[in-house]
């Protein structure tokens, strides 16, 4: 193991607040300009730097150090045996050192496919020696490294390992028995293991204290009942709800099964994933953020008995241009400096949103800031980003709390490394722009789902189309699928008009497409992708000022599904045997989907009408309230497109 600082390009940035030419102190504002950033250099092909973060004092110097995990970008995961990498950036008086130590991981696994896929990191103290310790896990094993003054020596060899096959997942450190030391849970295929820290014991650094058979899920939940032992959300079997199990310490007033209570404290539905957050309503119990995954995201307060309320105090649907709102959630203290320490960050694919409740949370709560701040995708946009967030407190001593954001891009080109980690400074919300970041409120669409008769009604979200359309360049190999499928007119470097197509069902019945067995003429087998494509379901077209078609494109659909909820009165998320979209839901072909573009390389600059259509062949028997085609004028000029009024 050696220092790998040469493969990172580290950039220090000046805070992007409202500076003055006379250098007088200015009011700190939330900004898109980072205070500190480290970016993966392009020589480590296929690596996604910033897949996970941990923050603690590993070398005992009194400052928090930053751990960054690097995993494989490439899909499918078994295509490479890259073992994953862990890098530690030592803490300094302000932020972190630009020099770091790094090590490739090794895994004690029974699988020949062992790699660092799904790599994650977490910090804790497993032996009480004053140094924070590090847990690193992947799909193939667990490694525990003991903190010490020399960080390079720390990463040289794990002090404890758990071997895995190829289906392992692990929790972060949690203190199940209230002794102040870090324990953890490992889920294998068909077995769940609980490891308690036992430094100095004959059994070693950890003791396996409990094994549960079956397919299990575990999520640390903090100390739910205030007894000093941390608790965990566990699955209880197929078709059963999940249970909140209390950690067991000596003298616990309830029956114990090893390190956890014999029975759950209470249960919740299996479909709901909760992330507990500090008490907001003063009853001593945590509240919960629920949702994500394209449906409704919401905050629920606790009841007097600690259970979650059945209704939400705040709900949000997200933005189809940046889908999967709720993919990230983190409480961040008082990020905007307004004196209220209930701020939280919610992430989607491509964007992070800041919320700053002042007092009680209500449905009127809106985001005060976002990274990136613009509601539209800029020209040159290459790929969506996914985020990991840490709340470090005030790193530079300016009296404002900061935010650490790891950002990874997922594009088509895996020949370069991807990802960066940035520190953004806290501050007040800027006066401009006035409008909050775009998000869909939780409102009914008037679908009339209770009617005895009705039909689906498919349309395209014009607003999402206008906000996502942009121009970018890409290079295609002659043997690439995009060339073979004629998604581009020639190999080489091509100029593309890219956009997201959001197919909505605003009718009161599900839009279900015939399967290939029912109507094989609707499908074609794609030799390149090795699956069937639904052909000519969506069409893209550019027309000149006389109305003549000058360019066309098409998306060969491979799956239509409920990806994004548009309405408070939407149907429950459906799963269809062939393809389908439920009432109030939409499928999204995002900008980074292959062939989701029109090749405009040889098209002259000028003004055109951009048109997107779905189901023009009437494959679905649908209503006519909403149009199947939407269009708007655009101006193409150089490497940019402008949406015109």
Q: What does this protein look like?
A:
This is FG-GAP repeat-containing protein. Pfam families: FG-GAP (PF01839), Lysyl_oxidase (PF01186). It comes from Myxococcus stipitatus (strain DSM 14675 / JCM 12634 / Mx s8). The N and C termini lie far apart (58 Å). The longest helix is centred in the C-terminal third of the chain and has 7 residues, at 462-468. Strand 46 and strand 47 (640-643) form a beta hairpin. The chain has 645 residues and is mainly beta. The chain is globular. 2% of the residues lie in helices and 40% in strands. The chain contains three helices and 47 strands. The chain has a domain at 458-643: Immunoglobulins (Immunoglobulin-like).
Q: Which terms would index this structure?
A:
six-stranded antiparallel sheet; five-stranded antiparallel sheet; 47 strands; mainly beta; single chain
Topology at a glance:
Layout: E1 8-12, E2 36-40, E3 47-56, E4 65-72, E5 85-89, E6 101-104, E7 120-124, E8 133-138, E9 141-145, H1 151-154, E10 160-163, E11 169-170, E12 184-188, E13 191-201, E14 204-213, E15 218-222, E16 231-234, E17 242-245, E18 256-257, E19 260-261, E20 266-268, E21 274-277, E22 287-290, E23 297-300, E24 314-318, E25 328-333, E26 343-348, E27 351-355, E28 367-371, E29 384-393, E30 402-410, E31 420-424, E32 440-441, E33 458-460, H2 462-468, E34 470-476, H3 481-484, E35 492-498, E36 501-505, E37 511-513, E38 523-526, E39 531-543, E40 549-557, E41 564-565, E42 579-581, E43 585-589, E44 597-599, E45 606-614, E46 629-637, E47 640-643
Antiparallel strand pairs: 1-2, 2-31, 3-4, 4-5, 5-6, 7-8, 8-9, 9-10, 11-12, 12-13, 13-14, 15-16, 16-17, 17-20, 18-19, 21-22, 22-23, 23-24, 24-32, 25-26, 26-27, 27-28, 29-30, 30-31, 33-36, 34-35, 35-44, 36-43, 37-42, 38-39, 39-40, 39-45, 41-43, 45-46, 46-47
GO molecular function, one term: copper ion binding
Organism: Myxococcus stipitatus (strain DSM 14675 / JCM 12634 / Mx s8)
Keywords: Glycoprotein, Repeat, Signal
């Amino acid at each position: 193991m050696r220092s790998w600082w040469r493969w990172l390009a580290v950039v220090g940035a000046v805070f992007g607040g409202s500076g003055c030419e006379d250098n007088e102190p200015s009011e700190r504002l939330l900004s898109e300009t980072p205070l500190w950033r480290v970016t993966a250099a392009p020589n480590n092909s296929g690596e996604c730097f910033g897949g996970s973060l941990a923050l603690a004092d590993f070398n005992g110097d009194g400052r928090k150090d930053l751990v960054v995990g690097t995993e494989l970008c490439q899909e499918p995961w078994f295509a490479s045996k890259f073992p994953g990498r862990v890098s530690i950036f030592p803490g300094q008086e302000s932020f972190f050192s630009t020099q770091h130590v790094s090590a490739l991981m090794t895994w004690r696994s029974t699988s020949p496919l062992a790699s660092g896929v799904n790599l994650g990191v977490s910090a804790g103290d497993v032996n009480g020696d004053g140094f924070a310790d590090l847990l690193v896990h992947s799909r193939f094993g667990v490694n525990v490294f003991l903190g010490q003054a020399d960080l390079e020596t720390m990463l040289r060899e794990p002090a404890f390992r758990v071997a895995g096959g190829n289906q392992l997942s692990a929790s972060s450190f949690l203190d199940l028995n209230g002794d102040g030391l870090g324990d953890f849970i490992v889920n294998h295929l068909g077995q769940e293991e609980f490891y308690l820290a036992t430094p100095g014991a004959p059994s070693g650094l950890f003791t396996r204290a409990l094994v549960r058979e079956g397919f299990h899920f575990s999520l640390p939940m903090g100390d739910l009942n205030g007894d000093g032992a941390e608790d965990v959300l566990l699955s209880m079997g197929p078709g059963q709800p999940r249970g909140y199990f209390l950690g067991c310490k000596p003298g616990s007033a309830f029956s114990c099964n090893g390190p956890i209570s014999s029975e759950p404290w209470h249960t919740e539905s299996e479909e709901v994933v909760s992330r507990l957050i500090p008490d907001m309503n003063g009853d001593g119990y945590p509240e919960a953020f629920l949702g994500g995954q394209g449906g409704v995201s919401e905050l629920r307060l606790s009841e007097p008995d600690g259970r979650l309320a059945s209704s939400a105090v705040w709900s949000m649907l997200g933005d189809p241009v940046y889908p999967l709102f709720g993919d990230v959630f983190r409480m961040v203290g008082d990020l905007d400096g307004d004196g209220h320490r209930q701020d939280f960050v919610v992430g989607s694919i491509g964007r992070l949103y800041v919320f700053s409740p002042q007092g009680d949370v209500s449905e009127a709560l809106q985001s005060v800031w976002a990274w990136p701040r613009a509601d539209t995708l800029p020209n040159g946009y290459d790929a969506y980003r996914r985020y990991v967030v840490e709340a470090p407190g005030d790193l530079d001593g300016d009296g404002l709390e900061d935010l650490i954001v790891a950002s990874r891009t997922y594009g088509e080109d895996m020949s370069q490394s991807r990802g960066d980690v940035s520190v953004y400074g806290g501050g007040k919300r800027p006066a401009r722009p006035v409008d909050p970041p775009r998000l869909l409120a939780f409102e009914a669409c008037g679908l009339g789902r209770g009617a005895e008769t009705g039909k689906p009604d498919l349309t395209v979200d014009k607003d999402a189309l206008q906000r996502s359309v942009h121009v970018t360049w890409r290079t295609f190999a002659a043997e690439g699928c995009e060339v073979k499928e004629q998604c581009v007119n020639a190999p080489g470097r091509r100029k593309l008009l890219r956009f997201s197509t959001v197919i909505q069902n605003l009718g009161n019945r599900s839009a279900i497409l015939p399967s290939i067995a029912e109507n094989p003429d609707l499908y074609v087998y794609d030799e390149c992708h090795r699956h069937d494509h639904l052909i000519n379901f969506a069409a893209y077209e550019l027309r000149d000022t006389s109305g003549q078609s000058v360019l066309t494109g098409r998306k060969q659909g491979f799956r239509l599904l409920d990806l994004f909820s548009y309405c408070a009165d939407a149907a429950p998320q459906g799963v269809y045997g062939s393809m389908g979209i439920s009432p109030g839901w939409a499928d999204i072909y995002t900008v980074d989907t292959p062939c989701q573009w029109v090749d405009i390389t040889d098209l002259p600059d000028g003004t055109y009408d951009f048109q997107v259509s779905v189901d023009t062949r009437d494959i679905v028997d649908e209503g006519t309230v909403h149009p199947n085609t939407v269009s708007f004028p655009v101006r193409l000029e150089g490497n940019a497109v402008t949406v015109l009024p």
